[in-house]
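User: For my dataset I need records formatted as: sequence, then structure tokens, nothing else. Please produce one.
Assistant:
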Amino acid sequence: MRRILIACSKCIFTMSAFLCCSVAGYAMPTVPAGYVVEEYLYVGDRALAKGLAIAPDGSLYIADSRGRILRSTAAGSFSVVNDTIPYPVGVAVTSSGRVFVASDPYNWPNATPPPPNACYEIVGGVAQESRCGESAAIAAKGDEIYFGCGRSICRISTADLDAGGAASDVLAEHNPSGFLGIEGISFDSDGTMYFISRDRARGDAAVYAYDFRGPATHVAILRFDVGCMRYSYLFTGPGFDGRLLFTDPSCPGPGYLYSMHVLGSPEVFAEGFARPLGNLFPYLGPQGIAFDGVNTLFVADVYAIWRITRLPPSVSLSASPDRATVGQTVTLTWSSANALSCTASGGAPSDGWAGPQPTIGHVALTTAAVGTYTYLLVCSSAAEDAQAQVIVTVSRPSKSSSHGGGAVGPLVLALMVVGAALRCNVRRRPLRPT
């Protein structure tokens, strides 16, 4: 259940913590256990941040409805890179740090009459019209720019741009029939491209994956309300654990951010990104996403940029006892958090410890040989590892405990000591002469 609270200071929210609110006074979005969400940047009342892109240096670029291109290097602060581009909706940053912006007046209701779509490169803070496409969908891979071109997707390298070359159609060979309304172009770490083809009149959209070796693979169908989607775009991209993320800016609803494994079923990953846009829209959901490829996801809504961070994995391991004798049982106990799998190594030969282990558990091992053994456990999320170890020392049983009759009692030990002392004090008398 979502609760709208009055304005308060920023705070971090997890599924197990009490819901708090953002600086704008709206309820914080909710995220799954193992993640935290915080308001990274408040861009302004009804700023409607849409295009997001993470640069090679880690900075975040943002295109908003005020015609601004913002750059943020830390939570709570940003600089205006440019404010002269009309209706910016998408940002792409190449591997060399060049910034390209897609402009699409159709996406803004106050563009009357709408000027043609255009693409710009920002050079030294100045927007220069470029030949990087005429589509709201724009993305960079390396030093190549990809953009929607009619019923397909085109690309052009920065070298060809500088030399006056032309863009090429990357889908023409495998998809000659074309697509409708190309949106939300993005790439995963393996170079696979994802995009959305939308039929605005019919009210649905299809998500495709393209590996540049064969036809684009259809991976999902999205449904939306035609009236609410008139001025909104869908955004998609790879996210945590290789899952595909996509926004649902349609209305009405709680502002869902969906996730799915390729060829899987969409599931709600996070929600609560619903914000009003004045009197024009009583609701608009998440507008843009950008993932750093490791642990951080940025999500834009009407007012702010939210940062969702996956908590790192942790693990603890203990042994009882950690000093044992040959043949004695030692119990190893462990637990982990935010981990998907655990792998054990070390230990004594053939004791059954090494290999895959559950993320929480215990096991009893029998020590068979004298030695000092290190038991290691590594637990992993999709991007990080955590490890713990414990050392067990195994010695031989004492000789006294191996003889029949058990240990020597204190009374017997005292008598033995007295006897030894008497023997030591005995002196031979000299023989008397006869």
